[in-house]
Design a protein that fits this description.
279 residues; alpha/beta; six-stranded parallel sheet; 10 helices; globular; binds NADP nicotinamide-adenine-dinucleotide phosphate
Length: 279
Amino acid sequence: MSKKYAVIGHPIGHTMSPFIHKRLFELYGIDAEYGVLDINPVNLERDYNEILKSLDGYNITIPHKQAIIPFLDGIDSKAKMYGSVNTVSNNDGFSKGYTTDPDGFLKALEYAKIPIDGRVVILGCGGVARTMAYEVLLKGVPFEFAIRAEDKEMAEKLISEINQTLDNPKVSYITIPELSGDINTLINATPIGMSPNTDSQPISDIQLKKCANVFDAIYNPLETKLIKNAKKNGSNAEGGMSMLVWQAVVSHYHWDKSTYDAGDIEKLCIDAAKELMSR
Ligand code: NAP
């Protein structure tokens, strides 16, 4: 009998999850259905009991990543630290929550050979920047947020939260125009360059030439202006589709202990980008 999985969110029309997860089930030879469930927040508790408990597992996107937690039987330590769950496995009546964004980020960097050492700069201080910040600091590497002048309060709030969560984290912030000097790894966690504004780039060409490695969280387009220019400069550069796909891969590890060939995942990234462009 087919196993049953889904992604839940609200609204959820444009999700890439079915495309990516169906391929991952096929690659590991698991007979599974993967659906899309639009769950209004007011119905989350009812649908948790009537629908979600009967699935083998599911992914969670906005706005349910925090709201689902009180219903689950357990969450792993990383999901607890982030206060966020994007993957649930139901095993023998026990529901367990995980967050796979952090490992998706680390795997994407690892496979792109982008190091987390030397001078690391994260552009932006929103949702994805928060995940990246914790993961860099958990590796014992200091870094700087580079932000817009109007986001100072937001950066200070995030840094204060990090200071309360981690032991002696070395994190500071500057504004993007203040950026100067050599950077070993630059990470874009802003939406600058995302479709349809594909002609924008978060930092100057001059500063980009001083960045040895560049990772852009944006996956639409597959290669942002930042990534194209970084590659032209001879820098090592990778776009965000790999992070999106790797965080899905990590969900399959939690569901079925599935493991994958890196070449198959690379091909899936390219096919997912084609799928995204065809929509
Ligand atoms: P978010 O929470 O809105 O954070 C975006 C950050 O960038 C905020 O600090 C925002 O400041 C800042 N920002 C926005 N416009 C800016 C500008 N013109 N100049 C400088 N800073 C600016 O968004 P998010 O969820 O972190 O997502 C950020 C990007 O990452 C999006 O493109 C998203 O698609 C991508 N993403 C990719 C993955 C993946 O798996 N590859 C996962 C998650 C997100 P304000 O709050 O003041 O606007």
